[in-house]
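Lecture notes, unit on protein representations.

Consider one protein chain, 422 amino acids long.
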Amino acid sequence: MSDLIKLLPDNIANQIAAGEVIQRPASVVKELLENSIDAGATRIDVNIKDSGKTLIQVVDNGQGMSAGDALLCFERHATSKVRKAEDLFALATKGFRGEALASIAAIAHVQMNTKLENSELGRTILIEGSEIKTNEDAAVPQGTSFEIKNLFFNVPARRNFLKSEKVEFGHISDEFERVSLAHPGIQFTLHHNGNELYNLPATTLRKRIVDVLGKKSNDRMVPIEESTEIVEMKGFVLKPEFARKTRGEQFFFVNDRFFKSHYFNHAITKAFEGLIAEKSFPGYFLYLNVDPAKIDVNVHPTKTEIKFEEEKFIYSILLSSVRQALGKYNIAPTLDFERETSFDIPHSMHSQPAVEPQIAVNPEFNPFKSTSSKTSAGSTGKTRDNFSQAIKSEGFGTQEAKHEDWENFYEIKEEKTQEEVT
């Protein structure tokens, strides 16, 4: 019997790898942006057409590549970030697997222009479905530019399952925001179908968040900063009154890498307990700095899930730091025994309109007027007829009340002294 197991050709292996790494146009944008950051770029321009189905262009002013590196970067598992196994536990770069460019080249038409800073000429490479069409010298600016056209041209099933242009560009915008928020020191621009959507200059962290979310967000943020032996943390949480019904403004970063964590998100939600309405989600932008040896980023194809060696301690630090920040800026309730609490309103009644109390006054009421002998229906007043026999036997209720009785009741008479008596 002949052998059945065969080694797959590189182009088929790359297409299989692309199924994990490149799920939609937004995945391409993310991988190219991270490559530009690893190349030391200070400006990155992104141009999109038809939500990435027609064109994805990423241009940077990074260090560029030599002719040899430019060709080798499209090979599977070709990387400049890892030399030995121990390097996986000390990663300081975005990419490290060497799969992204090989996967993209397997399912699209790719043109790359790159040039080193001190080189007279750069390099142009054109690849279609893992097949090299052009590899030659060219006069190109310093840095690297990628043009990705006809994504999934040879995987029609994957292309047919792409969502509408609005949905796909929404994912591209999300990836762009995550990367730009993680690197406020880099200038980013984003164009879609010729329209400029973002132009983010290099700036401070707070200003970058305001540039992404809008000017109104500046007054909504509460700063957080904490430093321990386990984790260094900084960032902002949004005030409770700006909690939303969706999780759109929730960002965790560790070592300048975006990640998702339901566990850490629970810590933030718990810190806001009692301050936001039910089924509302607090907004936050939290940046963690952890020893790379104590985290594992190689647990998910898109690297958005990260394992923390000391996640329980980080959970506690997150919870206490957020609570401390909310209390420090008088966002959370505090114990103040000198504060007047009679005007505190429960959270559930904040949205209810104020109602003026109504006071009923009987202008005919006269305390000196004697009551009638018979009570009206529903009355609880006392009359001579409904006094008990014990009361009547003591002389009460036998006569009508008189005006003089009330005057005598309040009259104060001085007691005679012993000398006056004698």
